[in-house]
UniProtKB/TrEMBL annotation:
PANTHER family: AB HYDROLASE-1 DOMAIN-CONTAINING PROTEIN, HYDROLASE, ALPHA/BETA FOLD FAMILY PROTEIN. This is Alpha/beta hydrolase. InterPro entries: AB_hydrolase, AB_hydrolase_1, AB_hydrolase_fold. SUPFAM superfamilies: alpha/beta-Hydrolases. Transmembrane segments: none annotated. Residues 26-278 form the AB hydrolase-1 domain. Pfam families: Abhydrolase_1 (PF00561). Keywords: Hydrolase. One of its GO terms (molecular function) is hydrolase activity.
């Protein structure tokens, strides 16, 4: 792994690092709500780079990790915004997912990357959808993992998973370690993943050391609410797309992944029966194989 670097992109500074041969075809990983790039595990990234023969790049989205924190934009009332979104009322937010997609495209500009494979998880998948809508020429392929079109008629999260969205991270390390384990017990769903449970404390310490930004997470969540239903626009996209979704996802139910695959022309879907809203170690092999096969099929198609 290279040391973290910083790049100016779309008016913000983004922290990034990379894995594999810099001369190989680039693959950009986009992480989800409130999670920094280290949520893409280093070992996962290294294995993906080797197995797919790509140059894997991960980065901190705006308002998380070491990237620019937009504290001057204030802290939105996300519960009020969610209610307005459900009622289809107008409201303003600090920024949208399209702005975050522009960040990713701007990072590619700064790194001198004309086109890349894009892989997004959860909110990162929605950001990838915005790229497919607004920057399709920059994408060799797209892999959307545990994400949604934003269609308000889709099944909602379980109450337990929804509660995790509105539970702020505690400010002390000891409390945060307990909070982190609780969150991932819920998000991983009903199946047991002992390898990940054993790593929760270590991962919590790493996330805490990198820095918590609850206000930034609120601004990202507001961006999700404001971005609405992407399904009509996705029907007119033509980026080769693979959808990966877990049948046991408590936060973004599998119906949402099916909806993404149905919305994007010619998209393929890979459903993993035991996967919840997480990327557990035991499921890395099918995840890496699926992404690798998809990128191999599409590296020369655009």
């Amino acid at each position: 792994m290279s040391r973290p670097n910083f790049a100016k992109a779309n008016g913000v500074d983004l922290a990034w690092d990379s894995f594999g041969d810099p001369g190989a075809t680039p693959l950009l990983l986009i992480m989800g709500l409130g999670a920094s790039m280290i949520a893409w595990d280093e070992v996962f990234c290294a294995h993906l780079a080797a197995a797919a023969g790509v140059h894997v790049i991960r980065f901190d989205n705006r308002d998380v990790g070491l990237s620019t924190s937009l504290s001057h934009l204030g802290v939105p009332d996300v519960q009020a915004l969610m209610m307005k979104a459900l009622a289809r009322q107008n409201f303003t937010v600090p920024y949208t997912l399209q702005d975050m997609a522009n960040d990713a495209a701007g990072l590619m500009d700064t790194l001198g990357i004309a086109r890349a494979h894009i892989v997004g998880a959860s909110m990162g998948g929605a950001i990838g959808q915005e790229m497919a809508i607004h920057h399709p020429g920059r994408m060799l392929s797209f892999t959307s993992i545990m994400s949604s079109t934003g269609d308000p008629t889709l099944p909602p999260p379980t109450p337990e998973a929804m509660a995790m969205l509105f539970t702020p991270a505690p400010p002390t390390l000891e409390a945060f370690i307990l909070h982190y384990a609780k969150v991932w017990r819920v998000l991983r769903g009903p199946h047991s993943f002992p390898d990940d449970e054993a790593r929760d404390a270590e991962r919590a310490r790493a996330a805490f050391a990198r820095g918590l930004n609850p206000a930034g997470t609120a601004r990202q969540l507001a961006a999700i609410f404001a971005s609405g239903n992407r399904k009509p626009a996705l029907r007119n996209t033509h980026v080769p797309t693979l959808v990966i979704h877990g049948d046991a996802d408590p936060l973004v139910p599998v119906e949402a992944g099916i909806d993404v695959a149905a919305a994007i022309p010619d998209a393929k879907i890979l459903r993993l029966p035991t996967m919840g809203h997480a990327l557990p170690v035991s499921l890395w092999p099918p995840l890496i194989e699926g992404i690798g096969n998809h990128t191999a099929r599409n590296v020369l198609t655009r």
